[in-house]
Design a protein that fits this description.
The complex is a heterotrimer of chains A (182), B (88) and C (260).
Chain A lengths: L28 E5 L5 E5 H5 L7 E6 L3 E12 H4 L9 E6 L4 E5 L9 E6 L2 E2 L9 E3 L12 E7 L28
Parallel strand pairs in A: 1-10
Antiparallel strand pairs in A: 1-2, 3-4, 4-7, 5-6, 5-10, 7-8, 7-9
Chain B lengths: L4 E2 L3 H6 L10 E4 L5 E3 L4 E3 L5 E4 L6 E7 L4 E4 L3 E5 L6
Antiparallel strand pairs in B: 1-4, 2-3, 2-8, 4-5, 5-6, 6-7
Chain C lengths: L11 E11 L4 E7 L11 E7 L5 E7 L4 H4 L5 E7 L7 H7 L5 E8 L16 E6 L3 H13 L6 E7 L8 H9 L4 E7 L16 H7 L8 E7 H13 L7 E6 L7
Parallel strand pairs in C: 7-8, 7-10, 8-9, 10-11
Antiparallel strand pairs in C: 1-2, 1-6, 2-5, 3-4, 3-6
Classes of the chains: A mainly beta (182), B mainly beta (88), C alpha/beta (260).
Chain lengths: 182, 88, 260
């Protein structure tokens, strides 16, 4: 049906919109909890004091859309995990607002993931998951949890909010793993 | 925070799964026992799915994911869904 | 008559734009020829889907502006009135690019709660319609259906807009009110009233509601439609005025993903 009439082409101006918890950086806190229950916390000042990187990456939305060459600033999970003793295989990222997403710890390390707080050179807006979101570009973008509050490490895999309702547990865009059974 | 949509807007997506209108269906929230129609719930159109929350206590009432050939509907947040079925 | 109570799954169907009509500088009515349209009730909406060449698609809901009677004509005509949002993803296309002959994917009619049916139960109750901006669209379908059905149920519309230039269906509302068959319309201007009218500007308040609406003793059926903030404020005023919460039906236009 689309494109069947000359001139009827539609080009959207925005993609992947979502709703918005509003978290003040004065109250913001990020934590990593290990499988033994040990909690490591950063407030905004401590987080900003960490060395940050500026990855430029392609992101893949589950709605068949990719945005190439997006520019971010964030703290690598490798940096955050320095000095944290863990043998966990799995992680769950928690967002302000209660949403969760799960992924293997192996996908968060070795330069594959950041806690990002700038997008396109500007502080990350609440609409886009700010003050800080997880950024894991090699997986579908729903894994890059917005409004990141914490990461819990675990010996077992715990499907997150959407993974428990049809979305693929791993979410590899190159294998088009969008839904269960894909 | 008024950045939610109205439950009336679920009617189209749910209308693909039910043979009758669901927006007028009555639900009771599992968390706070408040009664609402689906039309009155607060819908958050999160990519990648939809979440409807209780207007009284904000608990998740239902979740919907729509794939190209499958749909997943989680109704654990409601005690039951009361539908009005057109009579014979 | 209630063909809209038809059983069956909703699926996407394709309509063709038959005509367009500018309502204001930023709003347009689109009349669609929809083969196989099953009929609708006043207050229902359709979901519209736009698909870009790369396969990305998005949906929006738009209230049906036309009376159900028009949807039963041959060919069935379904009208939507779309308000263009400056940063909208969909409304600029619908109000500026879409033209006669273009296809439009739609799913509906949707909704069985926010509806007024002249033949339905409790249809003798007076009706209070409270509209904020483009929230007037589904309420206009109710007003048009009332006229098409020859109903004499007393209707009052309270219509809140920024300024007179934002009024949808301005001429038609005046004409229908002048017909003297029981429709009364009151206008609330939040930024600028008609020049020379002397009408104060400001948001809908308890005083206006009391003078322009029905007292709770009349037990009106109340329909409120508009942006979320407007609807919540209006519903609050109505409850404080003594209208039962169960008598008030609301439809809120939310942010992206919602209406216009």
């Amino acid at each position: 049906m689309r494109n069947s009439h000359p001139g009827s082409i539609w080009s959207p101006t925005s993609r992947c919109a979502g709703p918005t918890p509003r978290v003040d950086t004065g109250k913001w806190e990020f934590s990593i909890t290990t499988e033994t229950g040990k909690v490591h916390r950063w407030d905004w000042a401590a987080f900003q004091a960490l060395p940050a990187e500026e990855p430029t990456v392609d992101i893949h939305c589950v709605t068949k859309w990719s945005k190439l060459g997006t520019h971010w600033r964030g703290v690598s999970l490798d940096t955050l995990l320095v000095g944290i003793d863990t043998s966990a295989g799995f992680a769950v990222a928690h967002s302000y607002g209660g949403y969760t997403t799960n992924l293997p710890l192996a996908d968060l390390v070795d330069g594959q993931a950041w806690v990002a707080f700038h997008f396109g050179g500007e502080p990350l807006e609440a609409e886009h998951g700010g003050p800080a979101r997880l950024l894991v570009p090699h997986l579908y973008f729903w894994k890059s949890a917005k409004w990141l509050q914490g990461i819990t490490l675990s010996d077992h895999d715990e499907p997150g909010f959407w993974e428990s309702l049809g979305y693929h547990n791993y979410g590899d865009p190159w294998r088009e793993q969008r839904y269960w059974g894909d | 925070m008024s950045d939610y949509m109205d439950g009336n807007m679920l009617g189209g997506k749910l209308g693909e799964l039910f043979t009758m209108d669901v927006t007028a269906a009555a639900i009771t929230c599992v968390s706070c026992s408040a009664s609402w129609t689906i039309a009155q719930t607060r819908v958050y159109p999160h990519a990648p799915g939809l979440v409807a929350r209780c207007p009284t206590c904000d608990a998740v009432l239902l979740r919907l994911v729509r794939g190209p050939d499958r749909a997943w509907l989680d109704l654990r947040g409601v005690t039951c869904l009361q539908l009005t079925v057109p009579g014979q | 008559m209630a063909r809209a109570a038809v059983l069956g799954r909703l699926t996407w169907r394709v309509g063709t734009v038959a005509a367009t009509r500018d309502e204001t500088a930023t709003a347009r009515t689109i009349a669609l020829d929809v083969p196989g349209w099953p009929g609708h009730l006043a207050g229902q909406h359709v979901d519209v889907r736009l698909t870009a060449p790369d396969g990305y698609s998005t949906e929006r809901s738009y209230s049906i502006a036309s009376a159900p009677a028009d949807g039963q004509a041959d060919p069935p005509l379904v009208e939507l009135t779309v308000q263009r949002l400056e940063d909208g993803e969909v409304s600029p296309y619908l109000t500026q690019t879409l033209a006669v002959g273009y296809p439009l994917e739609l799913r509906g009619p949707v909704g069985g709660w926010f509806v007024w049916n002249p033949g339905g139960p409790a249809s003798t109750r007076p009706v209070l319609l409270v509209a904020g901006g483009s929230g007037v669209v589904p309420l206009m379908a109710m007003i048009r259906e009332r006229a098409a059905a020859g109903s004499r149920v007393p209707f009052k519309l309270i219509y809140s807009v920024r300024d007179p230039g934002a009024l949808l269906y301005a001429g038609e509302l005046l004409r229908r009110e002048r017909a003297g068959d029981g429709l009364q319309v009151s206008y609330v201007y939040t930024r600028a009233a008609p020049p020379g009218s002397g009408q104060p500007t400001g948001r809908l308040n308890a005083t206006t509601l009391a003078s322009a609406g029905w007292p709770p003793e009349e037990s009106p059926a109340v329909f409120v439609c508009g942006p979320t903030g407007f609807v919540e404020a209006a519903a609050d005023l109505l409850v404080r005025a003594g209208h039962g919460a169960g008598a008030i039906k609301t439809e809120r236009f939310g942010p992206s993903g919602g209406k216009p």
